[in-house]
Amino acid sequence: xxxxxxxxxxxxxxxxxxxxxxxxxxxxxxxxxxxxxxxxxxxxxxxxxxxxxxxxxxxxxxxxxxxxxxxxxxxxxxxxxxxxxxxxxxxxxxxxxxxxxxxxxxxxxxxxxxxxxxxxxxxxxxxxxxxxxxxxxxxxxxxxxxxxxxxxxxxxxxxxxxxxxxxxxxxxxxxxxxxxxxxxxxxxxxxxxxxxxxxxxxxxxxxx
Length: 208
Fold this sequence. Notes:
By secondary structure, the protein is α/β, with parallel strands linked by helices. The chain is about 35% helix and about 30% strand. Strands 1, 4, 5, 6, 7, 8, 10 and 12 form an 8-stranded mixed beta sheet that branches. Strands 9-11-13 form a 3-stranded parallel beta sheet. It has a two-stranded antiparallel sheet with strand order 2-3.
């Protein structure tokens, strides 16, 4: 699929398999989500711009690099929170702005209940974080908010996607790159990804 990047990294495949298992308890589940977030963020940030900077090593002065762009993390509440720490470990200076959306279980449409974005953009690159790209409704609604906010570069980072969710997000926003660990088979009648891993939020926070 165009503008969809699915990792082929063996560590990601291995950790996703552990994450899916019903026997994985919430503590281990959170640890795996954090580790996967860092691995996927590494791949999603390969094109970040840098600028030259002078570095003094114990032996000589050289020209190194530093990030030129400020990064914003936008976790979609609540499950997206689990990915923040993993990305922060790589980019501790990244700003975090929260978007609260829940899926109406009757219509499967996103409903916004929280928005903590400042008046204007303070970052150059926004990473939307959500473990599951299922129907794509929440992701597309978050992109709408960020574009209206004035964000210029936006990417979606998730663990597992469904073909339906990818198609929906790209039908609304074909310019948004999607970074995933795996693409699963389909959605079921309740809008859950199959085979998936169940409700990521419930499993993460022990509320299943």
